[in-house]
């Protein structure tokens, strides 16, 4: 059949498309920048007809209309694979929940799930001449979603960048049940105009000093990883590669400055590999139809075997707090949810297994609470309810503005001493006293 004729047959209104959602259904909303907009609005309008509709998605970049309906808890619940600030608020409001999982495991989860999506609806690029809708900047786990969903509805957005890749980067029209169109604003942006802080710059310098020419980079989201990217752009480093869960603005800056060419990558040479992208307009413009950039599924980008095969792999991620045993919490503040497991542990493990590889967990040594009181991020033990993202056996380098320490293989007292050396001086004596109570303090004679 002619592709354009097939397109016309499957094209429908958002209002008609969302009639496929029934009470009790599981509905998949895609991922990040490709969360539906016109379908979401149409579905929210049906709220009073529906109960117990369970949504899955993650890293929301704007507030969906389904969050705004009256008595939302009576109609909808949101189940997130990874939290943004919007989703954190929804948890506080009682209708959102985190689904703990290593991000790399999502494709298998969907393919083996006992509760696959009844309906999947998400944004895609316009259909190409071969009949494919590209997943845009959210390749991630979307093919697994489509393989298991009972009904697939695509929402065409002409503003989405077309992200090229090796595999699982789009869906053919023959697999789609319904197509909707509509007015879309420019793609949502994720980023900050704030300049790097002095602390960010100090941490970045300590990390950049460890990066060799030809290294392959993974940068997490946040100020410090981006500060590392900014500093690399000004450095003498060259022939760098990219293999990352998330593609961020810093990679664009590094590409424009000529630091990235991928020539020394063991696999996917000359390609910047990533699972999803979110940032400012310069990022979306850069990845659009760019053959240098390779969008791939998350079970490839975050596979420890893939990561460990890349020589001189450098993984750089944030933490919320760390304790004197070397446990890293990057997900919560006590019982208050902040983020998610994501792929941090995959990259911590994979980077250490790579020849010449290093993983860095970085954070400021302190923060100010809502009352303006200075608090230490380095604690004797994690706060009650805090989640261990990286176990004490896995952490390689820990970095604050007061230095960096290779924690791998250290005895508890050695590790404790190294971690305290990275704490703010105001808190070190107190931490030593607590370490003595925990039986992990033995001052060295170095």
From TrEMBL:
Q: In which pathway does it act?
A: Lipid metabolism; butanoate metabolism
Q: Which reaction does it catalyse?
A: butanoate + acetyl-CoA = butanoyl-CoA + acetate
What processes in GO biological process is this protein linked to?
Answer: acetate metabolic process; acetyl-CoA metabolic process; butyrate biosynthetic process
Q: Which residues form the Acetyl-CoA hydrolase/transferase C-terminal domain?
A: 279-435
Q: Which UniProt keywords apply?
A: Fatty acid metabolism, Lipid metabolism, Transferase
What is its biological role? Coenzyme A-transferase that converts butyryl-CoA to butyrate.
Know the name of this protein? Butyryl-CoA:acetate CoA-transferase
């Amino acid at each position: 059949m002619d592709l354009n004729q097939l397109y016309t047959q499957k094209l429908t209104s958002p209002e008609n498309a969302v009639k496929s959602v029934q009470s009790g259904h599981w509905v998949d909303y895609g991922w990040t920048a490709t969360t539906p907009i016109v379908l979401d609005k149409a579905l929210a309008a049906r709220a009073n007809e529906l109960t117990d509709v369970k949504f899955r998605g993650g890293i929301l970049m704007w507030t969906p209309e389904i969050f705004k309906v009256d008595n939302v808890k009576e109609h909808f619940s949101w189940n997130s694979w990874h939290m943004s600030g919007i989703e954190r608020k929804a948890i506080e409001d009682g209708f959102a929940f985190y689904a703990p999982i290593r991000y790399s495991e999502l494709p298998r989860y969907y393919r083996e799930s006992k509760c696959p999506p009844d309906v999947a609806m998400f944004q895609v690029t316009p259909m190409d001449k071969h009949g494919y809708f590209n997943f845009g900047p959210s390749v991630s786990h979307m093919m697994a979603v489509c393989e298991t969903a009972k009904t697939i509805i695509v929402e065409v957005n002409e503003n989405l960048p077309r992200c090229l890749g090796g595999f699982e980067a789009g869906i053919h029209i023959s697999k789609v049940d319904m197509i909707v169109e509509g007015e879309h604003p420019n793609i949502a942006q994720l980023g900050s105009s704030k300049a790097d802080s002095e602390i960010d710059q100090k941490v970045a310098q300590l990390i950049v000093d460890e990066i060799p020419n030809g290294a392959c980079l993974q940068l997490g989201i946040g100020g410090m990883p981006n500060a590392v990217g900014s500093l690399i752009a000004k450095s003498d480093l060259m022939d760098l590669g990219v293999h990352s869960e998330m593609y961020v603005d810093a990679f664009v800056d590094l590409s424009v400055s000529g630091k990235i060419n991928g020539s020394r990558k063991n696999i996917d040479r000359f390609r910047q590999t990533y699972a999803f992208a979110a940032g400012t307009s310069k990022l979306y413009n850069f990845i659009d139809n760019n053959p240098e950039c390779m969008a791939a599924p998350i079970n490839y980008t975050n596979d420890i075997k893939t990561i460990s095969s890349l020589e001189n792999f450098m993984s750089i991620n944030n933490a919320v707090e760390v304790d004197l045993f070397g446990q890293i919490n990057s997900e919560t503040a006590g019982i208050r949810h902040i983020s998610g497991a994501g792929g941090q542990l995959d990259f911590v493990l994979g980077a250490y297994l790579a020849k010449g590889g290093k993983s860095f967990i970085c954070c400021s040594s302190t923060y100010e609470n809502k009352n303006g009181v200075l608090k230490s991020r380095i604690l004797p033990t994690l706060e009650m309810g805090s989640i261990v993202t990286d176990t004490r056996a896995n952490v390689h380098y820990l970095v604050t503005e007061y230095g960096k320490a290779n924690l791998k293989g250290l005895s508890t007292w050695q590790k404790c001493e190294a971690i305290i050396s990275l704490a703010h001086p105001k808190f070190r004596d107190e931490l030593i006293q607590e370490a003595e109570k925990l039986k992990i303090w033995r001052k060295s004679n170095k």
